[in-house]
Amino acid sequence: MVGLTILCMFKQFCDFRILLFFAKEGVKVNWKKRIIAVLVIGCVKLGLFHIINRIINHVALNSNELKEAIDSCHYDWRFGRIYYEKTGQGKPLLLIHDLSVSSSSYEWKHVVKELSQTNTVFTLDLLGCGRSEKPNLTYTNFLYVQLISDFIKNVISSKVDVIATGASGAFTLAAASYENNIINRIMLVNPKDFFSLAKIPTKWTKALRFVINTPIVGTFLYNTLVNVYTIRRKFGTSYFNRTGQAEKEMVAAYFKSSQLDKAHSKYLFSSLLSRYTSANIVHNLKNITNSVFIIAGTGDPKNRLVADLYNNQLPSIEIIDLINARVLPQLELPEEFLEQVHVLFEIS
Hints:
The protein has about 350 residues and is α/β, with parallel strands linked by helices. Helices cover about 50% and strands about 15% of the residues.
Protein backbone atom coordinates (compact mmCIF):
# COMPACT_ATOMS: atom_id res chain seq x y z
CA MET A 1 0.00 0.00 0.00
CA VAL A 2 3.01 2.29 0.34
CA GLY A 3 3.43 2.00 -3.42
CA LEU A 4 -0.17 3.03 -3.96
CA THR A 5 0.31 6.04 -1.72
CA ILE A 6 3.36 7.09 -3.74
CA LEU A 7 1.41 6.73 -6.97
CA CYS A 8 -1.43 8.86 -5.64
CA MET A 9 1.06 11.52 -4.49
CA PHE A 10 2.68 11.44 -7.92
CA LYS A 11 -0.73 11.90 -9.56
CA GLN A 12 -1.47 14.91 -7.38
CA PHE A 13 1.98 16.33 -8.13
CA CYS A 14 1.39 15.98 -11.89
CA ASP A 15 -2.02 17.62 -11.61
CA PHE A 16 -0.48 20.49 -9.62
CA ARG A 17 2.35 21.07 -12.13
CA ILE A 18 -0.10 21.12 -15.03
CA LEU A 19 -2.37 23.60 -13.28
CA LEU A 20 0.65 25.72 -12.26
CA PHE A 21 1.84 25.83 -15.87
CA PHE A 22 -1.46 27.16 -17.13
CA ALA A 23 -1.71 29.59 -14.21
CA LYS A 24 1.56 31.17 -15.35
CA GLU A 25 -0.05 31.80 -18.72
CA GLY A 26 -2.27 34.36 -16.98
CA VAL A 27 -5.94 34.63 -16.32
CA LYS A 28 -6.81 35.04 -19.98
CA VAL A 29 -6.19 31.46 -21.03
CA ASN A 30 -8.08 30.72 -24.24
CA TRP A 31 -10.57 27.92 -24.49
CA LYS A 32 -8.24 25.63 -26.46
CA LYS A 33 -5.67 25.65 -23.68
CA ARG A 34 -8.38 25.02 -21.10
CA ILE A 35 -9.58 21.95 -23.03
CA ILE A 36 -6.00 20.70 -23.39
CA ALA A 37 -5.45 21.16 -19.64
CA VAL A 38 -8.59 19.18 -18.83
CA LEU A 39 -7.63 16.41 -21.26
CA VAL A 40 -4.07 16.18 -19.96
CA ILE A 41 -5.18 16.04 -16.33
CA GLY A 42 -7.85 13.48 -17.22
CA CYS A 43 -5.33 11.28 -19.04
CA VAL A 44 -2.90 11.48 -16.12
CA LYS A 45 -5.63 10.44 -13.69
CA LEU A 46 -6.80 7.55 -15.88
CA GLY A 47 -3.22 6.38 -16.34
CA LEU A 48 -2.57 6.38 -12.60
CA PHE A 49 -5.89 4.67 -11.89
CA HIS A 50 -4.96 1.95 -14.38
CA ILE A 51 -1.52 1.45 -12.80
CA ILE A 52 -3.03 1.26 -9.32
CA ASN A 53 -5.62 -1.28 -10.53
CA ARG A 54 -2.90 -3.46 -12.05
CA ILE A 55 -0.76 -3.34 -8.89
CA ILE A 56 -3.69 -4.33 -6.66
CA ASN A 57 -4.56 -7.20 -9.01
CA HIS A 58 -0.95 -8.39 -9.12
CA VAL A 59 -0.61 -8.35 -5.32
CA ALA A 60 -3.85 -10.31 -4.89
CA LEU A 61 -3.01 -12.98 -7.48
CA ASN A 62 0.45 -13.47 -6.01
CA SER A 63 -1.16 -15.33 -3.11
CA ASN A 64 -0.85 -19.12 -3.00
CA GLU A 65 -4.42 -19.47 -1.77
CA LEU A 66 -7.46 -20.40 -3.87
CA LYS A 67 -5.67 -22.49 -6.47
CA GLU A 68 -7.64 -24.93 -8.58
CA ALA A 69 -7.57 -28.43 -7.09
CA ILE A 70 -6.09 -31.26 -9.14
CA ASP A 71 -9.43 -33.08 -9.17
CA SER A 72 -11.51 -29.94 -9.82
CA CYS A 73 -14.22 -29.86 -12.49
CA HIS A 74 -16.05 -27.29 -14.60
CA TYR A 75 -19.70 -27.12 -15.50
CA ASP A 76 -20.33 -25.27 -18.76
CA TRP A 77 -23.52 -23.50 -17.78
CA ARG A 78 -25.36 -21.37 -20.34
CA PHE A 79 -24.35 -18.10 -18.63
CA GLY A 80 -20.74 -19.00 -17.83
CA ARG A 81 -18.30 -21.69 -16.77
CA ILE A 82 -18.78 -22.87 -13.18
CA TYR A 83 -15.89 -24.20 -11.09
CA TYR A 84 -16.71 -27.01 -8.66
CA GLU A 85 -15.09 -29.82 -6.69
CA LYS A 86 -16.46 -33.26 -5.93
CA THR A 87 -15.04 -35.32 -3.07
CA GLY A 88 -15.98 -38.45 -1.13
CA GLN A 89 -18.63 -41.11 -1.57
CA GLY A 90 -22.14 -41.56 -0.27
CA LYS A 91 -25.29 -39.48 -0.19
CA PRO A 92 -24.81 -36.19 -2.12
CA LEU A 93 -24.36 -32.97 -0.15
CA LEU A 94 -24.11 -29.56 -1.84
CA LEU A 95 -22.34 -26.69 -0.06
CA ILE A 96 -23.11 -23.17 -1.35
CA HIS A 97 -21.05 -20.22 -0.14
CA ASP A 98 -22.39 -16.75 0.67
CA LEU A 99 -22.90 -14.33 -2.20
CA SER A 100 -20.18 -11.69 -2.12
CA VAL A 101 -17.35 -10.82 -4.51
CA SER A 102 -14.77 -12.15 -2.05
CA SER A 103 -16.59 -15.40 -1.24
CA SER A 104 -15.90 -18.78 -2.82
CA SER A 105 -15.95 -22.48 -1.97
CA TYR A 106 -12.91 -21.71 0.22
CA GLU A 107 -15.60 -20.96 2.82
CA TRP A 108 -15.99 -24.72 3.34
CA LYS A 109 -12.27 -25.52 3.57
CA HIS A 110 -12.33 -26.68 7.20
CA VAL A 111 -15.37 -28.99 6.91
CA VAL A 112 -15.16 -30.68 3.48
CA LYS A 113 -12.62 -33.32 4.46
CA GLU A 114 -14.70 -34.73 7.31
CA LEU A 115 -18.02 -34.50 5.46
CA SER A 116 -16.53 -36.32 2.45
CA GLN A 117 -15.84 -39.36 4.67
CA THR A 118 -19.58 -40.11 4.71
CA ASN A 119 -20.99 -38.12 1.77
CA THR A 120 -20.29 -37.15 -1.81
CA VAL A 121 -19.61 -33.47 -1.21
CA PHE A 122 -20.04 -30.89 -3.98
CA THR A 123 -18.69 -27.36 -3.51
CA LEU A 124 -19.03 -24.76 -6.26
CA ASP A 125 -18.01 -21.18 -6.88
CA LEU A 126 -21.12 -19.24 -7.85
CA LEU A 127 -21.12 -17.32 -11.12
CA GLY A 128 -19.13 -14.10 -10.63
CA CYS A 129 -17.27 -15.53 -7.64
CA GLY A 130 -13.96 -17.30 -7.03
CA ARG A 131 -12.69 -19.44 -9.90
CA SER A 132 -15.96 -19.42 -11.85
CA GLU A 133 -16.46 -17.19 -14.87
CA LYS A 134 -17.32 -13.53 -14.27
CA PRO A 135 -19.26 -12.31 -17.32
CA ASN A 136 -20.38 -8.71 -17.75
CA LEU A 137 -24.11 -9.12 -17.14
CA THR A 138 -26.77 -8.21 -14.62
CA TYR A 139 -26.64 -10.72 -11.76
CA THR A 140 -30.12 -11.36 -10.40
CA ASN A 141 -31.72 -13.50 -7.74
CA PHE A 142 -33.40 -15.71 -10.33
CA LEU A 143 -30.08 -16.19 -12.16
CA TYR A 144 -28.70 -17.96 -9.08
CA VAL A 145 -31.92 -19.89 -8.54
CA GLN A 146 -31.51 -21.22 -12.09
CA LEU A 147 -27.83 -22.01 -11.48
CA ILE A 148 -28.57 -24.06 -8.37
CA SER A 149 -31.41 -25.94 -10.07
CA ASP A 150 -29.40 -26.65 -13.22
CA PHE A 151 -26.30 -27.68 -11.27
CA ILE A 152 -28.28 -30.20 -9.21
CA LYS A 153 -30.06 -31.63 -12.25
CA ASN A 154 -27.14 -31.71 -14.69
CA VAL A 155 -24.13 -32.34 -12.42
CA ILE A 156 -25.34 -34.05 -9.24
CA SER A 157 -28.25 -35.79 -11.02
CA SER A 158 -30.06 -36.80 -7.84
CA LYS A 159 -31.93 -35.30 -4.92
CA VAL A 160 -29.47 -33.57 -2.61
CA ASP A 161 -29.11 -32.08 0.85
CA VAL A 162 -28.00 -28.44 0.73
CA ILE A 163 -26.13 -26.19 3.15
CA ALA A 164 -26.13 -22.51 2.11
CA THR A 165 -24.71 -19.42 3.76
CA GLY A 166 -26.17 -15.91 3.91
CA ALA A 167 -27.86 -14.66 0.73
CA SER A 168 -27.45 -18.04 -0.97
CA GLY A 169 -30.05 -19.41 1.42
CA ALA A 170 -32.69 -17.36 -0.40
CA PHE A 171 -31.69 -18.89 -3.75
CA THR A 172 -31.83 -22.38 -2.26
CA LEU A 173 -35.27 -21.86 -0.76
CA ALA A 174 -36.56 -20.46 -4.06
CA ALA A 175 -35.12 -23.41 -6.00
CA ALA A 176 -36.78 -25.86 -3.58
CA SER A 177 -40.04 -23.94 -3.85
CA TYR A 178 -40.10 -24.09 -7.66
CA GLU A 179 -38.90 -27.72 -7.96
CA ASN A 180 -39.52 -29.79 -4.85
CA ASN A 181 -38.01 -32.96 -6.34
CA ILE A 182 -34.37 -31.79 -6.53
CA ILE A 183 -33.60 -30.74 -2.94
CA ASN A 184 -34.03 -32.83 0.19
CA ARG A 185 -33.03 -31.17 3.50
CA ILE A 186 -31.88 -27.56 3.72
CA MET A 187 -29.56 -25.97 6.26
CA LEU A 188 -29.31 -22.17 6.23
CA VAL A 189 -26.27 -20.60 7.86
CA ASN A 190 -27.18 -17.10 9.08
CA PRO A 191 -29.61 -16.30 6.24
CA LYS A 192 -30.27 -12.72 5.12
CA ASP A 193 -33.17 -10.87 6.72
CA PHE A 194 -36.41 -10.29 4.80
CA PHE A 195 -35.97 -6.51 4.77
CA SER A 196 -32.62 -6.69 2.95
CA LEU A 197 -33.93 -9.30 0.54
CA ALA A 198 -36.97 -7.20 -0.34
CA LYS A 199 -35.03 -4.08 -1.42
CA ILE A 200 -35.41 -3.14 -5.08
CA PRO A 201 -33.20 -1.17 -7.49
CA THR A 202 -33.52 2.62 -7.57
CA LYS A 203 -32.32 5.28 -10.02
CA TRP A 204 -29.38 5.97 -7.71
CA THR A 205 -28.31 2.32 -7.44
CA LYS A 206 -28.65 1.87 -11.20
CA ALA A 207 -26.42 4.91 -11.78
CA LEU A 208 -23.88 3.51 -9.32
CA ARG A 209 -23.89 0.20 -11.20
CA PHE A 210 -23.17 2.03 -14.47
CA VAL A 211 -20.16 3.82 -12.94
CA ILE A 212 -18.66 0.68 -11.37
CA ASN A 213 -19.01 -1.22 -14.65
CA THR A 214 -16.83 1.32 -16.51
CA PRO A 215 -13.37 -0.05 -17.44
CA ILE A 216 -10.81 2.01 -15.46
CA VAL A 217 -12.60 4.41 -13.13
CA GLY A 218 -15.15 1.76 -12.19
CA THR A 219 -12.42 -0.77 -11.42
CA PHE A 220 -10.58 1.82 -9.31
CA LEU A 221 -13.77 2.55 -7.35
CA TYR A 222 -14.33 -1.19 -6.90
CA ASN A 223 -10.77 -1.57 -5.57
CA THR A 224 -11.25 1.25 -3.07
CA LEU A 225 -14.35 -0.49 -1.71
CA VAL A 226 -13.11 -4.09 -1.88
CA ASN A 227 -9.51 -4.59 -0.81
CA VAL A 228 -7.43 -6.45 1.75
CA TYR A 229 -8.19 -3.85 4.45
CA THR A 230 -11.97 -3.85 3.99
CA ILE A 231 -11.96 -7.66 3.88
CA ARG A 232 -9.88 -7.92 7.07
CA ARG A 233 -12.24 -5.45 8.76
CA LYS A 234 -15.20 -7.54 7.60
CA PHE A 235 -13.75 -10.61 9.29
CA GLY A 236 -13.25 -8.64 12.49
CA THR A 237 -16.63 -6.93 12.62
CA SER A 238 -19.01 -9.33 10.89
CA TYR A 239 -17.67 -12.73 9.83
CA PHE A 240 -16.00 -13.74 13.10
CA ASN A 241 -17.02 -13.20 16.70
CA ARG A 242 -13.56 -12.25 17.93
CA THR A 243 -11.45 -9.50 16.37
CA GLY A 244 -8.17 -10.72 14.94
CA GLN A 245 -9.21 -14.37 14.88
CA ALA A 246 -9.08 -14.60 11.07
CA GLU A 247 -5.90 -16.19 9.79
CA LYS A 248 -3.78 -14.32 7.28
CA GLU A 249 -4.41 -16.99 4.65
CA MET A 250 -8.19 -16.54 4.98
CA VAL A 251 -7.98 -12.83 4.26
CA ALA A 252 -5.57 -13.54 1.37
CA ALA A 253 -7.96 -16.12 -0.13
CA TYR A 254 -10.94 -13.75 0.08
CA PHE A 255 -8.88 -10.92 -1.40
CA LYS A 256 -7.67 -13.11 -4.25
CA SER A 257 -11.24 -14.23 -4.98
CA SER A 258 -12.26 -10.59 -5.43
CA GLN A 259 -9.43 -10.01 -7.92
CA LEU A 260 -9.47 -13.15 -10.08
CA ASP A 261 -10.17 -12.69 -13.80
CA LYS A 262 -8.91 -9.08 -13.81
CA ALA A 263 -11.29 -8.03 -11.01
CA HIS A 264 -14.35 -8.80 -13.13
CA SER A 265 -16.20 -9.62 -9.92
CA LYS A 266 -16.97 -5.91 -10.03
CA TYR A 267 -19.90 -6.78 -12.31
CA LEU A 268 -21.41 -8.88 -9.52
CA PHE A 269 -20.47 -6.16 -7.02
CA SER A 270 -22.39 -3.54 -9.01
CA SER A 271 -25.44 -5.82 -9.18
CA LEU A 272 -25.27 -6.42 -5.43
CA LEU A 273 -25.11 -2.69 -4.70
CA SER A 274 -27.92 -2.08 -7.18
CA ARG A 275 -30.07 -4.71 -5.38
CA TYR A 276 -30.64 -6.87 -8.45
CA THR A 277 -29.85 -9.99 -6.43
CA SER A 278 -32.59 -9.24 -3.91
CA ALA A 279 -36.05 -10.79 -3.96
CA ASN A 280 -38.88 -11.22 -1.50
CA ILE A 281 -38.85 -14.89 -0.50
CA VAL A 282 -41.76 -14.90 1.96
CA HIS A 283 -44.04 -16.45 -0.67
CA ASN A 284 -41.39 -19.14 -1.34
CA LEU A 285 -41.42 -20.18 2.32
CA LYS A 286 -45.13 -20.93 2.09
CA ASN A 287 -44.43 -23.54 -0.59
CA ILE A 288 -41.57 -25.25 1.22
CA THR A 289 -42.19 -28.85 2.28
CA ASN A 290 -38.53 -29.67 2.95
CA SER A 291 -36.97 -30.08 6.38
CA VAL A 292 -35.27 -26.72 7.03
CA PHE A 293 -32.70 -25.94 9.72
CA ILE A 294 -31.08 -22.60 10.57
CA ILE A 295 -27.67 -22.24 12.17
CA ALA A 296 -27.64 -18.87 13.97
CA GLY A 297 -24.32 -17.44 15.09
CA THR A 298 -25.49 -15.60 18.18
CA GLY A 299 -22.22 -13.69 18.53
CA ASP A 300 -24.33 -11.19 16.63
CA PRO A 301 -27.83 -11.10 18.23
CA LYS A 302 -29.30 -10.04 14.89
CA ASN A 303 -28.71 -13.53 13.48
CA ARG A 304 -31.06 -15.09 16.04
CA LEU A 305 -33.71 -12.43 15.42
CA VAL A 306 -33.58 -13.15 11.68
CA ALA A 307 -33.86 -16.89 12.35
CA ASP A 308 -36.98 -16.24 14.45
CA LEU A 309 -38.52 -14.27 11.58
CA TYR A 310 -38.04 -17.27 9.29
CA ASN A 311 -39.56 -19.49 11.94
CA ASN A 312 -42.60 -17.21 12.16
CA GLN A 313 -43.20 -17.71 8.44
CA LEU A 314 -42.42 -21.44 8.50
CA PRO A 315 -42.95 -22.86 12.04
CA SER A 316 -41.42 -26.22 11.10
CA ILE A 317 -37.96 -24.61 10.85
CA GLU A 318 -35.57 -25.81 13.56
CA ILE A 319 -33.11 -23.21 14.89
CA ILE A 320 -29.73 -24.08 16.37
CA ASP A 321 -27.66 -21.45 18.17
CA LEU A 322 -23.87 -21.33 17.96
CA ILE A 323 -23.06 -19.00 20.82
CA ASN A 324 -19.47 -18.02 20.02
CA ALA A 325 -19.88 -17.63 16.27
CA ARG A 326 -21.07 -15.02 13.80
CA VAL A 327 -21.62 -15.20 10.04
CA LEU A 328 -19.12 -17.94 9.12
CA PRO A 329 -19.17 -20.65 11.83
CA GLN A 330 -17.83 -23.21 9.32
CA LEU A 331 -14.57 -21.23 9.27
CA GLU A 332 -14.65 -19.85 12.80
CA LEU A 333 -15.83 -22.91 14.75
CA PRO A 334 -15.64 -25.85 12.31
CA GLU A 335 -15.84 -28.59 14.96
CA GLU A 336 -19.01 -27.19 16.54
CA PHE A 337 -20.47 -26.60 13.08
CA LEU A 338 -19.74 -30.17 11.96
CA GLU A 339 -21.31 -31.52 15.11
CA GLN A 340 -24.61 -29.85 14.22
CA VAL A 341 -24.44 -31.03 10.60
CA HIS A 342 -23.92 -34.63 11.74
CA VAL A 343 -26.89 -34.45 14.09
CA LEU A 344 -29.33 -32.61 11.83
CA PHE A 345 -28.48 -34.49 8.63
CA GLU A 346 -28.25 -37.79 10.54
CA ILE A 347 -24.68 -38.43 9.45
CA SER A 348 -23.02 -41.21 11.42
